[in-house]
Write a structure and sequence with these properties.
Blueprint lengths: L1 E6 L4 H9 L6 E6 L3 H13 L3 E4 L7 H14 L4 E5 L17 H19 L3 E7 L24 H20 L4 E6 L12 H11 L5 H12 L10 E5 L2 E3 L3 H4 L1 H17 L6
Parallel strand pairs: 1-2, 1-4, 2-3, 4-5, 5-6, 6-7
Antiparallel strand pairs: 7-8
Helix pairs in contact: 1-7, 3-4, 4-5, 5-9
Length: 276
């Protein structure tokens, strides 16, 4: 039996993927999201399809919550697990977390790193998949302004925070060649991510009608999960849907990579775990 940890499991792509994987009886799904009731209903749905699943409610909206979630996962997950980073935030306005950091910078970047730290230190992980976004190519990181959202944009902030996490996971793959790491754009999917109110929200809802369903995307991700290997040791490949592509230029820019790396280390050191 292998454990498959799926964040953002209560809705959208995560919910559809859990149901798509329900019949993989060699795996146990460890479903993570904030909404306990939705998670428990999903566990029931997975079991009705013949699968095995447990719910681990957790919040990535603060570093402290992310650390606690990581510790809870260590207690229930067995070695050789796969972690799917699927949770994400596309904010409409600048919001600061209890640590004084911009919410998307935490949810999309810092908190997943903190959550997986305990799993890595405990030797629980074998593979890591990051459900990212093709929009990382529009990311523009500013070490002085991005962490606190002083450069907030209703579009650019999402792109930039997704770029930050992709770069951090490339560093992780290089530092831990025993891990199999892949980062991917899952497709243009009709979910409530980035939902807006007012006329803009109405227009966006019309546009989304032509996008693919979460179920179509989930089937694609299930096929990728079934691959024997995603990336060469020490590397993290970039997929657009199911096809490997060159990394966008901004993700290869050494100055950007260094700035993200140094800022991330500084932010996490400023809010250390008790075990450090």
């Amino acid at each position: 039996m292998a454990d498959l940890i799926l964040t953002g499991a209560s809705r959208g792509i995560g919910h559809a993927l859990a149901l798509a994987l329900a019949e993989r009886r060699d795996d146990r799904l460890v479903l993570v999201a904030r909404d306990r009731a939705r998670l428990e209903a999903l566990v029931t749905a997975v079991e009705q399809k013949g699968g095995r699943a447990i719910a681990v409610p957790g919040d990535l909206s603060s570093l402290a919550e992310a650390r606690e979630l990581g510790q809870r996962l260590v207690e229930v997950v067995t070695p050789g697990a796969t972690l799917i980073h699927n949770a994400g935030l596309w904010p409409a306005k600048r919001v600061l977390t209890p640590e004084g950091l911009e919410a998307a910078f935490v949810v999309n970047h810092l908190a997943p790193l903190e959550m997986q730290r305990a799993l890595l230190d405990a030797g629980r992980l074998r593979r890591v998949m990051v459900v990212s976004a093709g929009l990382i190519l529009k990311g523009r990181f500013d070490a002085a302004r991005t962490p606190t959202g002083e450069d907030f944009s209703g579009i650019r902030t999402y792109c930039t925070t997704k770029l930050c996490f992709a770069l951090a996971m490339r560093d992780l793959a290089a530092a831990r060649p025993e891990l199999d790491v892949v980062i991917l754009h899952p497709g243009v999917v009709r979910t409530d991510l980035g939902a807006r109110s007012g006329p803009i929200g109405w227009l966006l809802s019309l546009v989304k009608r032509g996008w693919e369903t979460p179920e179509v995307c989930a089937a694609r991700l299930a096929r990728i999960l079934a691959r024997e290997r995603w990336s060469s040791a020490g590397e993290a490949r970039w997929l657009i849907e199911e096809n490997e592509q060159p990394w966008p230029a901004v993700a290869e820019d050494e100055a950007t990579r260094r700035a993200v790396r140094e800022t991330t280390e500084r932010m996490l050191a400023k809010h250390p775990t008790t075990s450090r």
